Structure formats: C-alpha cells, structure tokens
Amino acid sequence: MALLEVKDVSKQYGRKKAMDHVSFEVAAGHIVGLIGPNGAGKSTTMRAITGLMSYSSGQITFDGQPITFSNHQALDKIGNLIEYPAIYPNLTALEHLKLYAMDTKTPADFQTLMKKTQIDGDNFGKRKAKQFSLGMKQRLGIAIALIRNPKLVILDEPMNGLDPQSVHDLRALIRELADDGVAFLISSHLLDELQKLVDDVVIINHGKIIETATMTAFFSHDKTRWLFDTSDNRAALDLAKSHAWVATLTDGHVEIYGADNLQQVITAFNDAGLIITAIQTVTGNLEKSLLDMLANDDKGE
Fold first, then answer.
1. Which protein family is it in (predicted)?
2. pTM of the model
3. Please, which contacts does 8-17 make with residues 24 or more away whose CB atoms are closer than 8 Å?
C-alpha cells in the first residue's frame, strides 16, 4: 500500500474546478514531482493533502489514516513547506525550531537539523529572522518541515531564493532522506533542477491529472530532437517543414523532430547545399516534454 493515496478528489470554487477527480499515490522513499502551469491546481492539491482546506469529494489517506479539513490525526508525520514559511521576525532560527517542535513528542535533534539544512552558523543562533535573506528563510522553512521526523514531506517551490550551491545541497539532503525511506511530494517551476531529483512525475492541468509515470517511463515516449546550426537557418527551417518534419527556431538554432533518423536530416541539408556547423541531440528534457504534453492537452479541451 502506498504511503499517501489521493483518490478521486475534487474541489470546486463556484464554477471553477480547482481539483477535478484527482488521483495519484506516493510510495515510501519516493520523490514525486507535482508539475503543471500556474493555476493548474498544484497548491490546492497540496493544501488538501495537508488538511489546510476542505475538498468536495473523494478521499485522501496517509499511512492508512484519512486526512480531512477536520481530521488532522495523520498529519503528525507529515512535514510541509507550502509557498512561504510562517516565520516570526523577532525569533532566531533555533527559537523557531523549538516553537514548531512543541506539539510533537519526538522532534528531530535541533543541532543536527540545523547542520543538515545549513542553518548551523553562529549568526543563525543570534540573529533574528527579520534580518534573514530570502534564501535563509527558505532553508529555515525546510528545517521546520523536517522537525517532526516526518514520513512524508510536501514542498512547494523549495528552491525559491536559493543560490546554486544551496540548491545542490538541498537536492543531496532530499535524496539522503528518501534513501532512508522518507517520501517527498515536490512542486517547483525550476524543472531542470526537479528533473535531477524526482523518481516519479504527476502532471496536472486545469485541475486534472493528465499523466502519472516514473521519470523513465515519462521519457520513454519523449521524441528525440536535433538542434542544428547551418549556413542558413531560415532555409534549413523551410526545408525541414517541406519534408513534413516538425521544425522551429529555438534560441537561434533549428530544432527538428519527426524525421526517421538523424542521417536523413543531414542528407537533406547536404543535398540542398546547406553547410552544417553544429548538431546537438536533445532527449529527456522535462520542460520541453511538459510543454508538449500541456499543448496537446489544451488542444483536446
């Protein structure tokens, strides 16, 4: 049985369906990316899972226990950072951890947690949160999400405000915890960073789940694309389209897919007298695959 089960959950605001029969699962030790455009229903889904809002129909269970707006018993082993952490400007980082640990019997060790999330410096024990940068506040929010030694951690845009080294360190921390059996449900608009981290993807659009898959399975149907630089990219673009290949100008390159193979494209360009100056094969790009999938879904609306 999955650790988290979301079954046929719907939530409606007037005529707008924020969640439309949403169903997916998160297994122990798995890192799941909840992905979709702004307004797709990601935050609503996360809020429903953490008991922060009611839902109209369906069922959410965690570790075999139901979660509703009025039933929070299961939430003791769920940590979350949704949007911006609730931080009090006149408390230090350590005081925040002590505050958020008051309602749990088995909190994480404060010093160990501060070290893991890189808030163990002397200044963090002395400076008040009103002096923290956005990145510092984000790291503190992640530490607060981990204070209960949770079995499941829900993170909405956890990489906001973090520098590249901090993002790398956060990925390493999440992977370390997942290897110890902690499950994660993560939403982020930084898809290139998310791609390096997640095991599974859940894609939501207009409140509906349009895809659930492992990363490997998700990319198994990803079309191989080639980026060309030629002596005349506009002519190369027109030539590709004349062969009924899908072709676009992307960041100054001619992007092509739909040909039988790479050699077929090279031969066509050579026969047309176009000089190829660079070729790049592109596969397994989460952002591109997501945009293609959303475009196809919107066409079917």
1. Belongs to the ABC transporter superfamily.
2. 0.77
3. 8/57, 8/58, 8/59, 9/45, 9/48, 9/55, 9/57, 9/58, 9/59, 9/60, 10/55, 10/56, 10/57, 10/58, 11/44, 11/48, 11/53, 11/54, 11/55, 11/56, 11/207, 12/56, 17/206, 17/207
